[in-house]
């Protein structure tokens, strides 16, 4: 019996090849998208799940509340770990991890001959303690990580770095010089860090050596570095709330609360490291779980749209198969047997679509990996979860897409079917078909509206005024503590006509590098209840970035902090309404270690992405912490400018590698996630519309079949082709408008929630909805018109002869 069902199904599908191909294409597109989305969601949810203590591992973070609102950080003061171990000895193992975001590495030939090799890395280098290997499952291929990093100035290289630095050699025992500060002895080679970790590393270095690399590393409770973090494990059944309370009670003795301020150290699970952008992680990449669920919903929608398309096409075929059904019933076939036959046909089509989807997914994965900057591979036979996903998809789509058409086809009365007089009400299922079309185009319009809004927000990011000039500015990282070597060559830097100006600073105006400090203003007896963002820069900073000075003057050249600039937000926080009133007022920062007076007020500028409000800023000089040189160049002569900058830079730092980046590229990275979302929305919208058009094509085909005689009579009575097309288009216009009425408020709700993540955002305009509705209507009418026009141009005599 099963063999017979399969043979009949194959013959039927071959006989109606066009119908089969339309269904396969529609389902394959939907299933391909859902499969790729499944792979992405699975990949993102797997981050750091490979550690055996993952469900018991936590990170110390800080939640701070002040009059300006909440701030969050995962950085801790250096003394935190010792205090933590003393206060909570039961929470172990506990370890420091310090992340240095790249550096310069030099290798001197062991025989003293040959040129020094220099490498520049801009990714994660982790400084870790031996307990790091107790807490995290780091693959070492037999290397004892704890022993390898027990001594000072030792390093474990990943295989990729070892092959890059020492091709064809055994690197163990070799020496790397890092940032011209540390001589690191290679004690082993370990496998590369897995792609699914938020603790990525190119190499692991003993933790004590970080104190030489990081000038901020000290025993003070007043300084916090977001790259300095503490991780620990908890035993089963431990009360985290009680442990938090005990730790905060002890820490409050070292970090007393300021008036109007609340600071609390909290324990955040490792499982949330990848998803909570408030605290960030060492990979620099977080993904909102809301985004993942939204992607999953889109994948479900696309399969749903494809299944609806199948239903429309299948029921459009109903009349063509009426005689077949009647003959089978006359010969004794039961309704159950007929439903089994038709569901089997649907299953074969779905199985074929899944096969095509797997092939398409394999071909598209490299492009998806490049777009999302991830590493996904489709090992079908080694991935039981993927096989399960495909099996569930096969069953679900077969049942959902095939059940209703099978029910309709198997319900034909034999006599009516053999006479081709099947009742319209039984085959059309008009109300259900209308609901399906409305649902299809509701989904399409939601995707189109979301695409337009995300695109407009991205355009706003690109065109928004940031408060400084970001065009044609080159930023070059400097070796730690060596800015003076290049500052002495400033005249040479600016000697080339393509170099307009240069400035040395801790960082550009917008950067992921922050130095936050508490302060006292004017009356030193009253501390301010907010932290300020310190911008350390030389006296050429405002000129280079074209930041307006609205009161006072620029501070004078100095190597240490003597004079200060403040921004407009700072004035608002201290209650000053007139910028001139702040000139001459005293500032005390860093716990009273530094004191000076305000000499100028600058206009506000954005320090990070437009998601965040502008913070209070204090600017001053401090050459020891100048880590970048910023150069304003002539855009039309950029190659000559870069060549000149490299020449002067290399003469100042012959042992280091010249590296640079354009500031506008660095700022664009703030919005990488949104840019990817925008691209994905565009792709999914096009696919949803394409599948929807296939469904419309099937529905119009059905209507044309049903109304063949009516079209013939109208033509004989003088109806024009345009009126025939209008006849068919009228009903679909109503359905698209109903879909618009549903899609507009739904998409507005979700996009309004999405935009709430941005402090600076666009307003959702009514034209977005009108444009999406008009575009959908235009596409629908074009699809309907193609098939309706064929009916309108057909010979009316043949139409009238049709039974």
TrEMBL record:
Any one Gene Ontology cellular component term annotated for this protein: plasma membrane
Main localization category: membrane
One example GO MF annotation: transmembrane transporter activity
Domain of life of the organism encoding this protein: Bacteria
InterPro entries: ABC3_permease_C, MacB_PCD, Macrolide_Exporter_MacB
Residue ranges annotated for the ABC3 transporter permease C-terminal domain, each copy included: 297-411, 683-793
Residues passing through the membrane, by range: 20-41, 292-311, 347-365, 386-412, 432-454, 679-700, 735-751, 766-789
Membrane-topology annotation of the record: Multi-pass membrane protein
Domain MacB-like periplasmic core: 20-249
UniProt entry keywords in alphabetical sequence: Cell membrane, Membrane, Transmembrane, Transmembrane helix
Compartments, as annotated in UniProt: Cell membrane
Protein's recorded name: FtsX-like permease family protein
Organism: Nibribacter ruber
């Amino acid at each position: 019996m099963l063999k017979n069902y399969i043979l009949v199904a194959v013959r039927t599908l071959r006989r109606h090849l066009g119908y089969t191909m339309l269904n396969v294409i529609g389902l394959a597109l939907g299933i391909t998208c859902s499969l790729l989305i499944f792979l992405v969601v699975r990949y993102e949810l797997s981050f750091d799940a490979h550690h055996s203590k993952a469900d018991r591992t936590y990170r110390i973070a800080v939640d701070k509340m002040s009059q300006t609102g909440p701030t969050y950080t995962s950085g801790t003061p250096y003394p935190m770990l010792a205090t933590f171990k003393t206060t909570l000895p039961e929470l172990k193992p506990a370890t420091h991890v310090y992340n240095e975001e790249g550096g310069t590495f030099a290798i001197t030939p062991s025989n003293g001959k040959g040129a020094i090799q220099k490498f520049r890395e801009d990714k994660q280098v982790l400084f870790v303690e031996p307990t790091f290997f107790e807490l995290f499952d780091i693959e070492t291929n037999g290397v004892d990580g704890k022993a390898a990093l027990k001594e000072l100035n030792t390093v474990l290289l990943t295989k990729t770095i070892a092959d890059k630095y020492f091709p064809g050699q055994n690197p163990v025992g070799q020496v790397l010089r890092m940032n011209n500060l540390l001589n690191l002895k290679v004690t082993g080679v370990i496998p590369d860090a897995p792609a699914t970790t938020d603790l990525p590393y190119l190499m692991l270095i003993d933790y004590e050596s970080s104190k030489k690399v990081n000038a901020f590393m000290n025993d003070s409770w007043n300084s916090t570095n977001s790259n300095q973090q503490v991780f620990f494990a908890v035993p089963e059944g431990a009360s985290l709330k009680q442990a938090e309370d005990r730790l905060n009670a002890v820490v409050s003795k070292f970090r007393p609360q300021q008036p109007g301020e609340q600071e609390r150290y909290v324990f955040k699970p490792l499982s949330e490291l990848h998803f909570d952008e408030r605290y960030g992680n060492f990979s620099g990449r977080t993904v909102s779980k809301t985004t993942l669920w939204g992607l999953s919903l889109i994948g479900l929608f696309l399969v749903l749209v494809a299944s609806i398309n199948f239903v429309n096409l299948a029921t459009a075929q109903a009349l063509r198969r009426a005689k077949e059904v009647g003959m089978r019933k006359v010969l004794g076939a039961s309704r159950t047997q007929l439903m089994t036959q038709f569901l089997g046909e649907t299953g074969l089509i779905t199985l074929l679509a899944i096969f095509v989807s797997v092939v398409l997914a394999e071909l598209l994965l490299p492009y998806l990996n490049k777009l999302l900057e991830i590493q996904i591979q489709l090992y079908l036979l080694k991935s039981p979860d993927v096989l399960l996903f495909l099996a569930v998809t096969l069953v679900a789509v077969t049942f959902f897409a095939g059940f209703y058409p099978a029910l309709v086809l198997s319900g034909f009365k034999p006599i009516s079917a053999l006479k081709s007089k099947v009742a319209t009400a039984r085959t059309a299922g008009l109300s259900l078909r209308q609901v399906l079309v409305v649902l299809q185009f509701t989904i399409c319009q939601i995707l189109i509206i979301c695409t337009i809004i995300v695109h407009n927000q991205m355009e706003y990011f690109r065109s928004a005024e940031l408060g400084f000039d970001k065009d044609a500015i080159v930023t070059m990282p400097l070796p730690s503590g060596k800015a003076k070597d290049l500052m002495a060559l400033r005249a040479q830097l600016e000697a080339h006509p393509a170099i307009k100006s240069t400035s040395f600073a801790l960082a550009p105006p917008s950067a992921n590098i922050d130095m936050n400090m508490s302060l006292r203003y004017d009356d030193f007896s009253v501390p301010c209840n907010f932290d300020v963002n310190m911008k350390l820069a030389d006296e050429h900073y405002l000129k280079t970035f074209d930041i307006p000075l609205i009161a006072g003057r620029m501070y004078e050249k100095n190597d240490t902090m003597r004079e200060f600039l403040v921004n407009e937000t700072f004035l608002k926080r201290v209650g000053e309404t007139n910028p001139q009133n702040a000139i001459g007022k005293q500032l005390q920062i860093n716990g009273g270690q530094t004191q000076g007076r305000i000499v100028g007020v600058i206009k506000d500028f954005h320090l990070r992405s437009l998601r965040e409000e502008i913070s209070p800023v204090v600017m001053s000089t401090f050459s020891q912490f100048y880590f970048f040189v910023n150069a304003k160049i002539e855009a039309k002569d950029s190659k000559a400018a870069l060549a000149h900058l490299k020449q002067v830079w290399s003469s100042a730092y012959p042992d280091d590698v010249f590296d640079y980046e354009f500031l506008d590229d660095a700022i664009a990275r703030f919005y990488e996630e949104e840019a990817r979302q925008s691209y994905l929305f565009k792709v999914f919208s096009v696919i949803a519309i394409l599948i929807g058009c296939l469904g419309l094509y099937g529905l119009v085909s059905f209507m044309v079949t049903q109304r063949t005689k009516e079209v013939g009579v109208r033509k004989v009575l003088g109806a024009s082709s345009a009126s025939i097309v209008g006849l068919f288009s009228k009903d679909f216009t109503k359905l698209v408008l109903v879909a618009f009425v549903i899609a507009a408020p739904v998409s507005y709700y979700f996009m309004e929630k999405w935009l709430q993540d941005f402090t600076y955002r666009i307003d959702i305009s009514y034209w977005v909805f009108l444009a999406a509705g008009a575009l959908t209507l235009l596409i629908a009418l074009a699809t309907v018109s193609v098939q309706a026009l064929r009916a309108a141009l057909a010979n009316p005599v043949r139409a009238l002869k049709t039974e």
